[in-house]
Task: structure prediction
Amino acid sequence: MTDVQQLRTRFAYVLIAVLWANSVLLSIAGNATGTDKASLFTTCGMALAALATTVWWVFGTHWITRQVSSIATIGQVMLLVYVFARHPYQADIHMYFFAMLAVLSGWLDWRIFLPAAFAIVAHHAVLNIVHHVGVFPDGGDVDRVLLHATIVFVQAIALSWAVAHLRRTLETSENARDAATTAKLAAEQARQEVATNTEQARSERQAVLLEVADDFERKIAGIARDVIVSVQTLRSASQQMTVGATEVAERSDAAYLSSHQTSSNVIAVTQATTELAASIGEIDRQVSETARIVVSTTTKAGTVLETVSQLSRKADDIGNIVGLISTIASQTNLLALNASIEAARFGQSGSGFAVVAQEVKALANQTSRATEDIQSQIEAIRTSSDDAIRAIDAMYTSIGSLNQVSAAVATVVEQQSAATIGIAHNIDAAAKETVTAASNIEIVSKVAAEAGEAASYVAQSADRLAEQSAQLDTEVAQFLGRIRAA
Result:
């Protein structure tokens, strides 16, 4: 049974006694106030006490008993307040509610306070409406009901918190006490087991020590032999390491000198390749400029060829016009001849017309000669234009060939420039790799020297290990002697 259950069991006797005491108090109060219902109130109070006692007898301190006994206690206080109806002490009797709520905290159950508080508030509210003299001496008062309800709920909440906290404290204390008791029993049992085991271990210790000493001696002897063999092997290996490290250091020095010279040569080649790339770049620029000039010349030659062609066409047009003029002059000459014939037929009267006809004929002849001269000049221009066209056409063809050659040269130079730049980059990378290789060879040379020193140190350590192994054999023999003596 837990501490809480023990306290509830003891409190049950107290509360049952309080219930029957309240029944007696109701009888005394009824007779003192002179109410005509004193016997009824006493009977009701005793009925409530009997109900709580019966439930306690059947269920013990169960939750049902706690709830029924709490409501019965509050019900007896309600009857007591009604007994003092219209009495000056009726308002003071209300404080008995608070006293009984405090007494009910002995159940250590916070759940009983809220039903009890609701019962008190319901009692005040209902009687204040139905029969106010049963609760207040001065008549109904809603404000007073609210005040009492607030106070009751505040007390109920405070008691609930205090009871819950007290119950947790008791349970924690009980758990700690149980844990301490369990720990004490375990410690006592452990002490007895330690005493028994110590006596048994003392007898077994000597036998185990002797067995361990013999086994230890066998193992140490084998280990000592293995150590001696390992020391000899280590000494031989350290000597071989020293010879190998010396050879590696010598070869590393030679490789370092060779790689250093190679690095210098590669750097020189890199510089020359860079200059070659710059020269090829300049050639590429000049070839590009030449190609640009050739393209410009080709364009201008085409323009000149077009102009000369237009001039030849204009000369043809002028020849056609001159031919037309020559035809007109021939017709004019023929008309002048006809006019002269007609003037001669008219005799003296046509002499003036004959003079005009002669002038027209002379002008026609001059025009014909002029057109012949123009025609011969136009033929000369046409011949020159044709020669110029053929020459320009040949030059245009040559310039086109030159343009193709320039483009091919530019392409080749561009490819050569790209190849040269790639070679320069590769040589530069090779130079860097050569420098890195030289650095690594130098590091290898240093590591080889350090390895030689380490090999020497290993040889010295092997010698010291051999000495310490011999000393260990002596110490082990003395140690085993002491163990066997114990």
About this structure: The helical segments are 3-33, 38-59, 63-83, 90-93, 95-104, 113-130, 142-346, 351-485. DSSP finds eight helices and no strands in the chain.
